[in-house]
Amino acid sequence: MSNPGNIVGGHKANLNNPSTLLIIPPLWSSIDQYPDTSEESKQHSKEVLNQEFNGGNVESSGDKNPNNVAGGLKATVNNPQVSQEAKDSAQERLKDMGA
Predict the structure, then answer these.
(1) Residue 6: which H helix or E strand, with range?
(2) What SS3 string covers 41-91?
(3) Is the pLDDT of residue 73 over 60?
(4) For a Cys-Cys bond, which of 6, 11, 35, 64 suits 20, CB 3.0-4.6 Å?
């Protein structure tokens, strides 16, 4: 079976995508507004999460690679589109890790 966390993540992403509207795509002003998820697809994702994955609650194995975590935190600190609060939090976590 595929990784349950990946399956749940895909269904949660589907639920957070904008719903398809009855507008011809070339009329959209930007690709960020282009709808890509139908209501039927969202309903299917809800059903799968509720019936097979306890509403989307999947236990993590907790086996995160510390180097990958540190890399993600460093990226957060250096990303100009991240809030100062998030940067400060990431910096503090890096300090706690000794990185």
Answers:
(1) helix 4-16
(2) HHHHHHHHHHHHCHHHCCCCCCCCCHHHHHHHHHHHHHCCCCCHHHHHHHH
(3) yes
(4) 35
DSSP 71: H
CA–CA dist 55, 47 (Å, integer): 9
Tell me how far CA of residue 51 lies from CA of 12, 47, 96, in angstroms.
Answer: 14, 6, 39
The two three-digit tokens of residue 80, written as one number: 């100009």
The Cα–Cα gap between 57 and 60 comes to 9
Query: Which residues have C-beta within 8 Å of that of residue 4, sequence separation ≥ 6?
Result: 53, 58
At residue 14, the pLDDT reads 84
pLDDT of residue 69: 92
